[in-house]
Amino acid sequence: MRNFKNSLFYIFITGGFIYLMYRIVEQGKLLEVGRKIVSPSSNDSQWVQFLSSLFHNLQHPLALLLFQIITIVLVARVFGWIFRKIGQPSVIGEIIAGIVLGPSLFGLYFPDMKEALFPLASLGNLQLLSQIGLILFMFVIGMELDLKVLKNKANEAVVISHASIVIPFALGIGLSYYIYHQFAPPGVEFLSFSLFMGIAMSITAFPVLARIVQERGIHKTRLGTIVITCAAADDITAWCLLAAVIAIVKAGSFVSSLYVIGLAVGYVLMMLFIVKPFLKRIGELYAKKDNIKKSVVAIFFLTLIVSSYLTEIIGIHALFGAFMTGVIMPDISKFRNVFIEKVEDVSLILLLPLFFVFTGLRTEIGLINEPYLWKITGFIILVAVAGKFFGSALAAKFVGQSWRDSLTIGALMNTRGLMELVVLNIGYELGVLSPKVFTMMVIMALVTTFMTGPALDLINFIFKTKDVIIPSEVKRSSDFNILISFGNNQKGKSLLRLANSLIKKQPDSSNVTAMHLTASDEMHSYNLEEYEKETFEPIVKESKKLDQPITTIFKATNDMETDIADIAHQGNYDLVLVGLGKSIFEGTLLGKVLGFTTRIINPDRLLDKFKGKEGLFENSPFDDRTRLIISKTKTPLGILIDKDLYEVQKVFVGLYSIGDVFLIDYAQKLIHNNNAIVTILDNNGHTKNNFTIQNSLVALEEKHPNNFEVFQPNQINKPFLLEQDLVIFSLETWKKLVEDEVSWLTDVPSVLIIKP
After folding, report:
1. Beta-sheet pairing, 677-682 with 726-730
2. Residue 728: beta bridge partners?
3. pLDDT in tens, 709-734
4. pLDDT at 277
5. Of all residues in the chain, what percent carry a pLDDT higher than 70?
6. Number of other residues whose CB lies within 10 A of the CB of residue 657
7. DSSP run (H or E) holding 638
8. What confidence score (pLDDT) does residue 605 get?
9. Using CB atoms within 10 A of its CB, is residue 688 exposed (0-12), middle (13-18) or buried (19+)?
10. How far apart are the C-alpha atoms of 161 and 237, rounded to whole Å?
11. Which stretches within 328-434 are classed as H helix?
12. ∠ CA 40-46-49 to the nearest 5 degrees?
């Protein structure tokens, strides 16, 4: 009855008001009498009118801007992905994506399309949005700086950092002396030109450097701490210098710039002694609450905008204000995490690529069209490397670092990345840098950033060392070392329980290492230690509960599969345990399970993948990762399909071929160390027909007669399977079972698939 009333009301309201609107429109047409009404030409067909309207909509500034953003983000992501795959920071790919979309390539070969996509009139909107993106990005960079490390390592860091600024700054000014006459824009004073060349030579990309340090696993070493501290000190010093340089350039004379610098000093003092305590107080009031109110978030964002506005008005650029706001954010991880999460995705994914493309539109490689100009570009790169690389390295050696560590510091400090582009664009906008010099400096930024990884590899090769990954606590002489690699805490605990079951009674001759790898672009240097502690806390608690000592490895990476394989090899581990998850078991129908698992373990697809053809695991969130781990890892590998594995007391081991004999060793370990009851499935009579398997089983039965029995295939049923805690198969057997669509697969508990 209620539904009928609602329907009647809906019909009455909508029908009545539609009729009312119709009558008003009909009467309104009478008002047109005596007025000149403009209508589309009657000669145009409806289709032509539609196309004309559509074309007009496409030319609308908002539609054009949205299309530009779509194009830019897609191209930037593709190039970023490509460069990550070759071991380079994604920022290099994104910068090159900007150059590709600019006049250097896209505009050179498709000038009409480039003009249609980036007409001159639309660049103002693009620049505005890119500047907003930079403001948000600099806010994040400021928050990533951990000022506490400056206090702990101030002496060495200040010497190395300031040397890495003063030396290249001086070389940059010296370089400007030789190129000023030919390359400086008309009307630009030598002081302004030389100061910008100096600051451009001395900048370091802190975010890129921090991620390289994390990816190479040296963030917890003394060297990693020093280089992060140097980069932080370098960033702060360089941005203060840049603010002073901008003030001098805008003021027009050194004396006039003193007023601007005086205002800037007053601004900094206000931020440090008034705004910072205010924000800290707000942080302390709301740090313990579950949710941060929108009004509190608004206060911080308003502070960011006001700070950027003030520095822009003062004359030292809005980016300095954004950076300063990030630096004075409350030293509370919860607050910094909230704002980084809110800001970073929008700025890095959506807005910063606009800046790269805008830079690319200004970068015309075609301007460097003579051998002489390429010689000048090469000389600029040489001066940049000599000043930053060797300046940092010599300073590090002077304060007592080894040659290997000194050169490593130099290579890392020579990374310029996005920060260099920010400086260059400011110089270009102020008219200090000509298009030719701007292009040469962009090329220098790309080369010096690109060379960081190869330079570090070369240093390691020369000194016959590798970056520290394996903890010194790992007992390399142990008889049985296990590496567990986990993605989430629950899977990590299950893997730890399984590892403990294999070595419980052999603590002096075994070792368990728990490893967590995280994507490098998801990590921030300021909370790295806290994130690591939170990640391992549940695993450490579980290890204490099991009385199982563990060592830990935490690493930020851009290639998890390769790192798992490399670390397993470097650490001489005897078994690597990884988790696949239990999504394979979701659903009750065999068809669903087998349909999913067939995609996961299909022998033909696996073989094809090893040949570089069609992919394995192609439709699962863990597809590519697990497939690549299988193909890259040469160490014995155990893949746990976890179905809430809490104990390993009843174990079912399937022997389907002579090649499965190695599984008996794992059965023996579970019996000896965990007193497990092991049932072995003899599918093809191998226990009687094969001498090796028969002897292994006889020895096992003699030692543990009450923990071992052989099962026949026809005895497998659902009640029996439900009693088991763990089922163990070789990788080849598991593939065969899935291919044959064995009916009892739907009832198996947690499964350990082992590749010898």
Report:
1. unpaired
2. 653, 752
3. 777 666 666 777 778 888 888 888 88
4. 93
5. 82
6. 15
7. strand 637-641
8. 41
9. exposed
10. 9
11. 333-345, 352-362, 371-385, 391-398, 403-413, 417-429
12. 50
Q: How many CB atoms lie within 10 A of CB 170?
A: 15
pTM: 0.72
- Grouping H, G, I as helix, E, B as strand and the rest as coil, residue 654 is strand
Q: How many residues does this entry show for the chain?
A: 756
Cβ–Cβ < 8 Å for 244, 198: no
- Residue 134 in tokens: 């930079």
The DSSP 8-state label assigned to residue 390 in this structure reads: I
Q: How far apart are CA 218 and CA 467, in angstroms?
A: 7
Maximum pairwise Cα distance, the chain = 112
> Is residue 283 a contact partner of residue 332, using CB atoms and an 8 Å limit?
yes
Token match 């907003």: residue? 132
Q: Kindly list the distances between the CA atom of residue 600 and the CA atoms of 167, 579, 584, in Å, as whole numbers in the listed order.
A: 57, 14, 9
Question: In this structure, what are the phi and psi dihedrals at residue 219, rounded to the nearest 5 degrees?
Answer: -65, -25
Helix (H, G, I), strand (E, B) or coil at 41: coil
Percent of the chain with pLDDT over 90: 17
Distance separating alpha carbons of residues 350 and 466, to the nearest angstrom = 37
pLDDT band of residue 153 (cuts 50, 70, 90) is: low
- Name 652's Cβ contacts closer than 8 Å, sequence gap at least 6: 678, 679, 681, 711, 721, 724, 726, 727, 728
Q: Rounded to an integer, what distance in angstroms lies between the CA atom of residue 289 and that of residue 518?
A: 28
What pairing do the DSSP bridges indicate for beta strands 750-755 and 726-730? parallel
**Sole residue written with tokens 């010096």:** 448
The pLDDT of residue 146: 67
pLDDT in tens, 2-22: 777 888 888 888 888 898 998
Separation of alpha carbons 41 and 588, rounded Å = 65
Residue 40: exposure state from Cβ atoms within 10 A (0-12, 13-18, ≥19): exposed
| Reported confidence tier of residue 606, pLDDT bands at 50, 70, 90 | very low
Nearest C-alpha neighbor of 714 from the set 687, 682, 679: 682
- Per-residue pLDDT, 706: 76
3-state SS of the chain: helix, strand, coil percent to 5?
A: 70, 10, 20
CA separation for the pair 515, 560 (Å, rounded): 11
Cα 318 to the center of its chain, rounded Å: 27
Mean pLDDT over residues 509-538, rounded? Answer: 76
Spatial distance between the Cα atoms of 66 and 74, rounded to a whole number of angstroms: 12
Token pair belonging to 509: 């001759």
Confidence check: pLDDT of 552 > 50: yes
Cβ atoms of residues 159 and 398 within 8 Å: yes
List the Cα angle 493/496/501 in 5-degree steps: 130
Secondary structure class of 730 (helix, strand, coil): strand
**Helix, strand, or coil here: 639?**
strand
**Interacting residues of 533 by C-beta distance below 8 A, sequence separation 6+:** none
What is the rounded CA–CA span in Å between residue 726 and residue 670?
11
325 has a pLDDT exceeding 90: yes
Q: Which helix (H) or strand (E) holds 589?
A: none
Q: Which of 541, 569, 536 is nearest to 553 (CA)?
A: 536
Mean pLDDT (the chain, rounded) = 80
How far apart CA 549 and CA 569 sit, in angstroms, is 21
Q: What is the mean pLDDT of residues 610-634?
A: 54
The end-to-end CA distance of the chain, in Å, is 69
Which of 198-202, 558-562, 615-619, 659-663 comes out lowest in average pLDDT? 615-619
Q: What is the pLDDT of residues 364-401, one digit of tens each?
A: 888 888 899 999 999 999 999 999 999 999 998 888 88
Q: What is the pLDDT of residue 609?
A: 37
Helix (H) or strand (E) holding 513, with range, is strand 510-519
Beta bridge partners of 637: 576, 755
Amino acid present at 22: Y
